Amino acid sequence: xxxxxxxxxxxxxxxxKIFEQGHYAGRTQPTGTRQGIYATAPSGLxxxxxxxxxxxxxxxxxxxxxxxxxxxxxxxxxQTGDPSAETVKLDRPEQRYPKDxxxxxxxxRDLPGEQQPSDWRADAWNQDYxxxxxxxxxxxxxxxxxxxxxxxxxxxxxxRLARLNFVDNVRGxxxxxxxxxxxxxxxDSEVLSVAHGIVTVRFRGATRAEHEGIxxxxxxxxxxxxxxxxxxxxxxxxxxxxxxxxxxxFVSFEVLAVGRRFGATQYNGRHDDMEQAPVGFCLSLAxxxxxxxxxxxxxxAYGWR
Amino acid sequence: xxxxxxxxxxxxxxxxxxxxxESNFARWRDTIRPKRAEFAFEDCAWKPTFWExxxxxxxxxxxxxxxxxxxxPLACT
Lengths: 305, 77
Prior knowledge:
The complex is a heterodimer of chains A (305) and B (77). Chain A has helices spanning 2-6, 10-19, 55-70, 74-77, 134-138, 155-164; strands at residues 36-40, 46-50, 102-110, 125-132, 150-152, 182-195, 198-215, 227-244, 249-262, 277-285. Chain A has six helices and ten strands. In chain A, strands 4-3-10-9-8-7-6-5 form an eight-stranded antiparallel sheet. Helix content of chain B is 42%, strand content 6%. Chain B contains three helices and one strand. Strand 1 of chain A pairs antiparallel with strand 1 (64-68) of chain B.
C-alpha cells in the first residue's frame, strides 16, 4: 500500500491517479492513507470507491461502479497503449517469488482463553507468507538425509520467522521485530523416515522476541499521546514435513508455533487486551494460485535483491 | 492466602498454552487454520498485483476491483 501511494513506476502512478479520485482524495489528516476498495477502468477512470467492511455498502458501491462502467464510452475506459509493454518497468517483490524454493502460508489466531471477547475478535485470524529460496529450504533439513539424522536449522532462518512472521497480526496491522528484539530462535530437524524418495522430518524449536518503544495504542484515537510500551511473543514450535529428494522440494509442511503474546501496537486492536494471552501460528505449504504469490508483508526486511 | 492462590491459579489457567506433541497436533492445527467458510473470499480470482489486473482488464475489456489495504484479503502487504 505504501509503495502504491508513493512509488513512481507505471503501476504506482496509475494507482495514485485512481486514489485521488476516490473516497480519501487529497486527505492528509488524521492520516494520508488511501486504503480502501476501488472499482476502476483500466484507463484509471474511477467508477466508485469505499472503505468499509459492511457487505451491503460494498454491494451498493459495486452497483454504482457497474452503472458508471455501462454509461461510459470505451475510449474513456481503456488505455490507448498496451500496459503489458510497461511491465518491465516494475520492480515488485513478487518478481522474486521463490518458485524453486519453499513458500509457506502463515496463519495466526488467538487460542481459546478466558479473556476472549464475544464479538468478531473471538474468531479473528490473519495470514501472511514466508519465503525461502531453494538453498534455504534445503538447509531446513540435515545434510545427510538418513533416518535418525538431526540438524540445527540455520539461526538466520528461524530468526527471520521470529522477526517477520511471529508478530501479533491476529486482529490487524502490526510492526515487525528487529534483529536485536529476538532473544531466542532455535529450530531442530530430525529425519524420521526415508521411503520411496520421500524424507519425513520432524521440527521442534522455540522463539522469543520483545520490543520496547514509544507509540500510540488505539488506532487514531490517541495519536497525540504516544507513550512507552512493550510487546512480546514467546512460542514453541512443533511439526513435520516431507521432502521429495528427486524434485528437491518440500511436498508437505505443517508446523505449529503456539505460546503467549502480550502488549499492543497502534493498529493491531489489542489496546484493551494487553496482558499475556495464548496465540498460535500454523505454517503450511502454500499452493500455486496467483493469489498465493503475494509477497510476505515484511518482504523488504529479507534483503533479497 | 487461599483466595490469592485461587486467583493465581485462575490467571495461569486463563493463559494456558498447549504443549504440542503428536497426540494433539491435528487438533491445534485445525483450531488455528481457517475453516473453508473463512476462505470464501478466495473464490474471487484475485491477482497478487494491481498491474496484472490492469493488463488483463485492458486485454479483456473489463473493469478492475482494487482492494488496497494494509491487511487486504490475500495478506498484509
